[in-house]
Amino acid sequence: MIRTKRFFGRPAPLASGRRSIVCLPSCTLSALAVVLVSCSVAACGPRNELVAVDIVHRQQGDGSAVKIVTAIHVESDGSTWQATHAAGASPSIAPDDRMALSICQVLDGGPRGAPQIGFRALDLGNVSVEGATGDLPVTRHELETGQGVYFRLEPSVDALPYTAGQENVVQATGGGEAPGFVARVRAPPPFQVEMIGHVTAGAGTIPIPRNRDLRINWAPGSEDSEMFLAIVTAAQGLVCRVRDDGEFEVPRRYLSELTSGQANLVLERYNQEKFDTANATDGHARSGRARYAVQRWHRVQTQ
Question: Are 287 and 49 in contact (CB under 8 A)?
Answer without folding.
Answer: yes
